[in-house]
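Question thread 4412

I'm putting together a teaching handout and wanted feedback from people who do this every day. The idea is simple: show students a protein as raw sequence, then show them the structure tokens that encode its fold, then repeat with a second protein so they can compare. Below is the first pair exactly as I plan to print it.
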Amino acid sequence: MTTLSELRQANQEGLLREKIIVRASMVGIVANILLVIFKITIGLLSNSIAIVLDAVNNLSDVASSLITIVGTKLAGKEPDKMHPFGHGRIEYLSAMMIAVIILYAGITSLIESVKQIFQPEIPNYNPTSLFIIGVAVMVKIGLGLYVKKTGRKVKSNSLVNSGEDALLDAVISFSTLVAAGIFLVFQLPLEAWLGAIISLVILKTGLSMLRGTISQLLGEQSDIEVAKKIQKTVMKFPKVLGVYDLVLNNYGPNRWNGSLHIEVPDTLTVVELDQLLRDIAIKVVREHQVLLTAIGVYSVNTKDKEVVAAQKKVKEIALSHKYIRQIHGFYLMKAEKKMRFDLVVSFDAENREEAFHEAVEAVKKAFPDYELQVAMDADFMEE
């Protein structure tokens, strides 16, 4: 369904994305190694725990960048028998590892800061050390903005996390300058307290990153705007009467598989339906870069006015119940006295099963002579 030229283009885009991520990570590694050397030297000479902790945090940034590079390389591997959807989710694991490193840095920093609070040491600042810290602040701001912007551009959580961490480092270093200024003017040693505050900020950032990555691995709700665009694209086909049950599965950044159901007239032949499904799949992958691995079909009664009236009545009954969001896939067979449809139950319902059965029983009362085949469904794009 996808042409060879399109496959080549997708592969080239993937390789370009990998190169961009690796380049941004290498810039981060070089910058952070230089900052580690400067900060540890200055911290030890000036007896400043905050500067030493700041250097340790920069060292963790080097590890983060290395993990980003390795994760990106592994995520770019071709699909195999064990992983037919590719290895893209490795990037989420690498982002999780970066979050864990940040948490570890925060915990160790907090422990050292607390020790210094109870056993304080007088810092020894000098103009040279303060100047270099100021330069480090500027470097970190530039690095953070560059890495974060690049991460958003190529949709790399690992890079975005690294960029946020670099900007946080800039704030931490600036805070060190503030503490130094207070000490030089008022002779108040706030190093240990500042170190504790820095540690708490690091921990908060690490937890936030970890929560976000775990949420992605568990399976977050897909981008609703993207889902709406896909539904709109499919609805443009003249023979499609409705689009339902859209599910998008993420297998890494920019890697989406999906499935959906469509309603079509019961007059379509198998040949016509087969061509329609192929046309839909091709259009969606070209316009939205989502591979539809399955397209289910609901047939719609179009020949009998009584059936159409019955469908309208069932819809009114079902939607009169608070947590029923939608009814679709309706089909009625008069001769067999059978009726089938799906009811979409909101996630807001305290008991979705109970809400579903209440609606089904109401329909049964209105159509006692019919055998009902009703499936409970969900709207995975529910807002």
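The second pair follows. I'd like the answer to focus on this one:
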Amino acid sequence: MRDASQFPRFSDSEMADRHRRVALVMEEQKLDALLFYGTGQFSTDVYWLTDWPGGREAYVLFQAGAEPLVITQLYNHVPMARVLSVIPDLRWAGANTAATMSALLGERGLSGKKLGLVGSIPYRHYLRFTEDYPETDFSDASGAFRTMRTVKTPEEIARLRIASDLTDRSIAAVAKGLTVGMREDEIPYLIEPVYLKEGGTAGIHFMTAMPMDDPHFPVPAQFHSNRKLQERDCLITEISGGYWGYTGQIHRTFSFVEPTDAWKDLHEAAVEGFLAIEAALKDGATTADVENAAEIIHRRGYTIYDDLLHGVSQTPPIIQTRTTKRHESPEITFRENMVVTVQPNVITKDEKMGLQFGETVVVTRTGCERLNAYPREWVICDG
């Protein structure tokens, strides 16, 4: 018999508290209901709300004074969803998800009400809702909801500890198993068994191998080549192991020989920037504190294009540097139990050399707590 106890679960009290927090967001935003949309496993708010990892396409409706409900697009996802979801009213969406959801809004009496939308709802779905209910006040509630989620609960942090440990072990497996002559696209075979054996899931495996004497690529690549590793290569990485919706991201650099002076200086700048940002983080710290700490990288003659830090799985808070930000960083005040990946991507101004040094930390009242335990150093492999 397949039942929920056979899977990693959040406690009943944890899930009840999440639903209470949803009700508070509705109250604060003066909404009659919140409609959440998600697609894919683990990465959406659907999982956070239901304890079911999600599927192809799903909606969750929370309404003041009524029980929540879930609909999902694919019928073959329904049996598993009914085993795992803490929301018992779970239905198959049928042939047209938007039409089914729209009809349910009418059945729930939400015509002419205030309805907050959360998630990347397809435009055709939004058109269907607004055409069917022109008197309903639809608004984007994603920001308020995501801000509420930035502070993690003890049970969420426990998941993140497991994920971070899996990531540490995967980095150790790379350090032990990396050899001269191995193809770049073989490296994930060192990483993934670590996750899968412990019930984890593969997250990000970004990496780039290149000659230290002829650098040409300043970031870990999203796709792996069939190039064979050479003795004087370095390997820059961004790796995250997942455990049921939570990831423990880490960034380390590997080689078979001592790094050149240029790479040593680049790595030292990245570590120095990381430590400065880490030292700035604590309950009450602000966006400006993080941006100020990162200026040390620019003073050393390097630049950054990627995020200085981001929340779990690229969720808020997200902060760039003051000098090279893609857009205005939001004004953030960090709070105890926020969890972020600090990851300065330090790059030479000609954009030929670059690496990331980073890991995942929990913000505390007085500073940060590491979730990753792997040594903070350039990794030299026996090869």
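Top answer:
Good format. For the second protein you could add a caption like this: The chain has a mean pLDDT of 93. DSSP finds ten helices and 19 strands in the chain.
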